[in-house]
What we know:
mainly alpha, 0% strand, elongated
Amino acid sequence: MSPPRDFSIEMAAERIVDARTRDYFREAYNSYSNGNYRSAVVMLWSVVVCDVLFKLDELRSLHSDKTAEAILTEIEDQQKKNPKSPEWELSLLEKVRDRTSLIDLTEFGNLAFLQQHRHLSAHPVLTTGYTLFSPTREAVRAHIRSALEGLLTKPSVMTKKVFNAFVEDLEHIQNVLVDDVGLRKYLESKYFPHMLPHVEDSIFRSLWRLVFKVADASCEKNRDINFRALRILLGRRAQEIATGIQAEREYYSSIASSGTPMEKIFELLGEYPQLYSLLTDAARVLIQGYARQNDNQAISAWFISGSVGGHVSVFLERAKSGALNVGRASHSRLVSIAAVEGFREQAIEVGVHLYVKSKNFDVADERFSGLVEPYLDVIAADQLLICLQGIEVNNQTYWRGRAKIDHGLLNDACVRVWGSAFNPAQYPHFASSL
């Protein structure tokens, strides 16, 4: 693992959001670079105050944000009452700290310390011989870093209540960022560098309710993009979030009993099965009940069975008896899960049994292309034999129009496995379909 890189003021300055702030900051940084540390501190405080005002004004003008509007109105009134007093500057930061998510207590403390150094640098200290305070290079650099990381590089949206801004933004970009790679890059660039862990936890907690509980029209419209964001958040800090779920089991176990919310929770638990045991018995009963009624969800929900091998065996028996009906995507998830634990052949066999149990031509067409053909390059001899024997006793497989093409592919797989020893004439119905 490579050692952490030193903080770079220049690189951080490139990420300053507002162009005006970036220009003002350049002046403060030039003073610092030239050794004019008092001037740098005085200017840096002005940059901080201006940047907060810019962010609030942007939210008021572009997003009609009521909190931003109220803060600006209060500060303007405070200035009018005492136009010569600079007290409104710290008051501005206090209001932002208390009523928005832009800065937390630690960041506010750092900025308040900058303000103290600003006053000492700008005014003679009467008790020390009428001298001006002289901040050290190290102290000024620390102030610059605190200002950049705690405020200047954060987007204005962080001054809103973060969750509301976050989901509004997701709704706007859901048709643009249609894959998770792009969405992850977007969130990592715009939000995650500016969020403390407890903020991420809060967003995850609220998204959980929107995705898995609420079923109104707005949530349904945005469920997929919200779910994708939730998965990305979980992937960043899975262990910490799991601990939070365990601590609030009742909250996280309050889920819808059907519909797309339940479909999404199956999808999540398929990727993070460890979360299933963290839910209450009531939630697990709902999940189990839904699984009994939905083969396509249940077939990949091995977390209910407790082991992948046992789960695959259950569905293999159901496929053999003809009491199973799943599509390509669901079967593919089962094969992927089973392959990790060494049960790929058995999972592929599930698809083979489903094909040879097909009750009509259309189902047989669909099942061969979705459940058998994708695995012909890796299918084992035992599964090929089951397929050939099953075809012989089901005319819905060998009389259908696509059998000539499909069984030609199957024949190629047999030759790959058995070579010249394979004689299709041993299976007359199969041979006649070629």
